[in-house]
């Protein structure tokens, strides 16, 4: 290890790819992003918006029909009491996780490329969680009694059971939604001020003005703002990992064979991030094209996200195989049978293979750079993942419940038309909210993207672009040759624990 | 209602880049001004040091908020599960030893309260929302949220003087120097 890396000789390194391509100026970013709000929407926006509104109406009708008739209009019955409703709940709540991962975890790990996609991803999180909330809210049966979920005093003097993961879920999901809204709003404040300053006096300016809180971009404000942002990121990071863990506890703490496994929390979290990134790409690849944001959301961003999909998809594949292995190795007859019915001769076996090929095999294409750069391939894989993650939840919930301990209690499940249209309707609601977001709020976090431009560095030197940097690189730990001791004066030297993380970071940054 | 009286808020000077603003801030700090600020479209790395500011105390607020959340969740669960309405499920105890089952909700409320104290603390420390600031009377100031960088030295600074502060800002390389006045 005693290379000559410890002396201060600067070495020439390749310049890192720019996050904003074509040397765009600060003003260009403002004009391009606020232009989306200030100009008329493209025709395609209306083409997508009107069907979304219609589907949201269908959702409303289905929910109205359900409420006035009863939950019997859904197909779930003994033994499959959870059916599509909980499948859709877990599906939508999982979608949300990518937004928080981008906004919080990638912020803490200093992944600057996140700035171009975090706003849209966080918006997607909120809308996905809204769609998710519909299902358990109505699944409780009498929706007008839904406040029984919250620990408020009621006429029967009955209190909730805090030892139940279902109640943990109420707290986890509502906290997740609230904190995501706060985080999103904090990020929006400087950008809303930008729109405010460009508006003519009137109602629009007043509304943007109120929501921008009178922001003046003062450094005495940025100081607290950045600290608040950092703290929210630090709080959201364990939160996002906890939410899907708690969702998985709904299953894992039961004694149902096929659910009662310790692998569920990490498996669910990886799956959620996986499915969420697929949805981010599904939304952002068309949006960047329609609104001409190719210089802000570059092929580099898509490449990075494809790599995360590959990583998390492989973790999910590992979890699938490990479940099967443990079912065999654990020698629990019921669990073994539950998994055998999934993979061989069960009533829902095709769903298992659809799940496996969409979630594990399809993302493997992202090992190849050509596939990560061809947007049609990326979109196709993301569509597979979107479908595959829904299949995963269906396989976990329905195949397990349909075949539990006693064969006499077995029954099959199929959704009714109300369930199908409710689910389709939530896609309409999701798309409608996202399109309204594109219409009224800045889709790119302008102040953050401006902050990662090279000229935003207070020590930027425009005449010295072929950068020479000192070798204080994570991977190569500089050693003092004479003493054989790690050189602790170099930043991040000798942190062996961080190495696997660094290796991944380097691959993402490459 | 508008009157003829005007109150001087301070001098506003524009700088052409983040680098220029940073260097100007260091000199304003060294000149001994206290009531001044810089305005930029994005937070500039290292500007706190250039302005001579300390670390934000917001984290203290958040620590208190988070601790309040943990305590609230514990009290909520202990009172309802152990004192008022003990439910025996799966033969688990209804006393202090059921604490592990309370951890998820304690965790969630810690995060929730800490997040609220973070965002509320941020706006309280910044004295926002405030919609009527004198700087909003300046036409050029609107560009702070686009691509302009400003230094503003306020009239309430003890070192402020109409002539010397103006020439000081000119000497730093500031352009479009404007005396911002507010209607009284």
What does this structure look like?
The complex is a heterodimer of chains A (510) and B (184). Mean pLDDT of chain A is 85; it is low at 1-5 and 466-502. In chain A, strands 1-2 form a two-stranded antiparallel ribbon. Chain A has helices at 26-38, 43-69, 83-108, 118-139, 165-198, 203-211, 219-252, 264-290, 299-329, 333-343, 349-361, 369-373, 375-402, 417-440, 446-451, 499-509; strands spanning 11-12, 468-469. Chain A has 16 helices and two strands. Chain A has one domain. Chain A has 510 residues and is an all-alpha fold. The model of chain B has no long low-confidence stretch (mean pLDDT 89). Chain B has a four-stranded antiparallel sheet with strand order 2-3-1-4. The relative contact order of chain B is 0.29. Chain B has helices at residues 18-31, 47-51, 58-84, 99-125, 162-171; strands at 6-15, 36-39, 149-154, 175-183. Chains A and B meet through helix 1, helix 5, helix 7 and helix 15 of A and helix 1, strand 2, helix 2, helix 3 and helix 4 of B.
């Amino acid at each position: 290890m005693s290379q000559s890396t410890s002396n201060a000789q600067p070495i020439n390194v390749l310049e890192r790819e720019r996050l904003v391509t074509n040397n765009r100026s600060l003003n260009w970013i403002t004009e391009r992003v606020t232009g989306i709000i200030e100009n008329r929407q493209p025709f395609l926006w209306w083409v997508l918006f009107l069907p979304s509104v219609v589907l949201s109406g269908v959702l409303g009708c289905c929910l109205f029909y359900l409420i006035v008739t009863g939950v019997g209009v859904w197909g779930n019955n003994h033994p499959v009491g959870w059916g599509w409703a909980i499948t859709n709940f877990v599906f939508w709540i999982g979608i949300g996780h990518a937004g928080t991962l981008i906004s919080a975890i990638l912020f803490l790990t200093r992944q600057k490329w996140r700035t171009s996609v975090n706003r849209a991803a966080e918006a997607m999180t909120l809308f996905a969680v809204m769609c998710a909330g519909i299902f358990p809210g109505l699944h409780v049966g009498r929706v007008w009694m839904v406040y029984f979920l919250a620990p408020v005093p009621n006429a029967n003097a009955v209190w909730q059971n805090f030892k139940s993961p279902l109640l943990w879920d109420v707290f986890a999901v509502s906290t997740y939604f609230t904190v995501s809204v706060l985080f999103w709003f904090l990020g929006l404040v400087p950008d809303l001020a930008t729109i405010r300053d460009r508006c003519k006096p009137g109602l629009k300016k007043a509304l943007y003005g109120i929501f921008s809180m009178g922001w003046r971009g003062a450094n005495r404000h940025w100081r607290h703002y950045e600290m608040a942002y950092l703290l929210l990121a630090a709080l959201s990071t364990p939160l996002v990992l906890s939410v899907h863990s708690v969702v998985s506890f709904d299953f894992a703490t039961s004694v149902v064979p096929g659910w009662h496994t310790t692998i569920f929390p990490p498996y669910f979290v990886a799956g959620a991030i996986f499915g969420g990134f697929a949805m981010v790409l599904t939304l952002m690849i068309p949006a960047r094209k329609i609104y001409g944001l190719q210089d802000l959301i570059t092929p580099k961003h898509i490449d990075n996200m494809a790599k995360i999909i590959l990583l998390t998809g492989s973790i999910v594949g590992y979890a699938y195989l490990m479940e099967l292995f443990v079912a065999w190795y654990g020698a629990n007859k019921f669990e073994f049978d539950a998994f055998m019915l999934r993979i061989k001769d069960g009533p829902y076996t095709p769903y298992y293979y659809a799940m496996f090929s969409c979630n594990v095999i399809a993302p493997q294409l992202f090992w190849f750079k050509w596939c990560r750069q061809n947007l049609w391939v990326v979109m196709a894989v993301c569509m597979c993942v979107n479908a595959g993650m829904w299949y995963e939840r269906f396989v976990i919930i329905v195949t397990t419940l349909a075949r539990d301990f006693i064969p006499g209690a077995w029954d099959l499940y199929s959704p009714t038309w109300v369930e199908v249209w409710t689910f389709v309707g939530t896609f309409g609601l999701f798309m409608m909210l996202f399109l309204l977001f594109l219409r009224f709020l800045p889709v790119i976090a302008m102040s953050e993207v401006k902050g990662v431009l090279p000229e935003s560095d207070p020590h930027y030197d425009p005449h010295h672009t072929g950068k020479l940097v000192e070798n204080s690189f994570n991977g190569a730990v500089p050693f003092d040759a004479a003493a054989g001791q790690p050189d602790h004066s170099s930043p991040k030297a000798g942190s062996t624990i961080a190495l696997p993380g660094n290796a991944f970071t380097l691959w993402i940054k490459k | 209602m508008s009157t003829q009286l005007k109150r001087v808020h301070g001098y506003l000077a524009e700088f052409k880049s983040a680098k220029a603003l940073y260097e100007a801030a260091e000199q304003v700090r060294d000149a001994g001004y206290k009531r001044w600020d810089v305005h930029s479209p994005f937070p500039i790395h290292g500007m706190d040091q250039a302005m001579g500011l300390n670390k934000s105390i917001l984290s203290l607020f958040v620590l208190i908020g988070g601790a309040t959340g943990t305590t609230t969740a514990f009290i909520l669960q202990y009172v309802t599960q152990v004192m008022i309405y003990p439910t025996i499920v799966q033969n688990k105890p209804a006393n202090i030893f059921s604490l592990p089952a309370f951890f998820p909700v304690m965790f969630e409320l810690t995060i929730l309260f800490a997040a609220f104290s973070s965002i509320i603390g941020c706006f309280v420390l910044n004295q926002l929302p405030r919609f009527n600031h004198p700087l909003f009377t300046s036409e050029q100031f609107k560009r702070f949220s686009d691509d302009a960088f400003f230094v503003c030295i306020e009239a309430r600074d003890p070192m402020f003087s109409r002539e010397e502060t103006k020439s000081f800002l000119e000497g730093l390389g500031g352009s479009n120097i404007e005396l911002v006045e507010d209607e009284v």
